[in-house]
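User: Predict the structure for this protein chain, please.
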Amino acid sequence: MITKEQNIEIVAGMLLRVIEGKNAERPGLAETPRRVAEAWAEWTSGYGQSAAAILKCFEDGAENCDEMVILNGIPVYSHCEHHLAPIFGTASVAYIPNGKIVGLSKLSRVVDIFARRLQVQERLTNQVADALWENLEPKGVGVIVRARHMCMESRGVNRSGIETTSSALRGVLRTEPSARAEFLMLAGAK
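Assistant: Here is the predicted structure, written as structure tokens:
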């Protein structure tokens, strides 16, 4: 049985032959199909992961924790499902505990799980928010993703440096104006 990575290596070799023609056999490209396969295996590793599996909650330590917990500047590296072009930026992720807390590194890992799939930014933002909302059962969740899209910057309209911002709010961060305002301020929303 041929693996996913082996299939990618075959396709990468075919692509090189289409782009480079006779030059596809030159020494500088000899290892490229293997490297492409390894890269895409890492870039799409989120398909084999579950947010629920990593979001282990703790009641111990959650006593009197009813204020917002926020991580800013979580790196986001993904690929556009329309062009397979890179998407990169940062995420701000917040939740308001409701008797349970989660390890802070898990918030960053949830972003990675969904970013390491072919994506559109809007879906990525909502998937992170939904995973936290469903698995932590918090009072509120807020996610803001700010990212640049190479499908827009390097082709088509060729507009570099444009940042797209998307947000997803759940619970009190959606319904309570003061909680929403606090999240937006702490997340550095303009």
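DSSP finds eight helices and seven strands in the chain.
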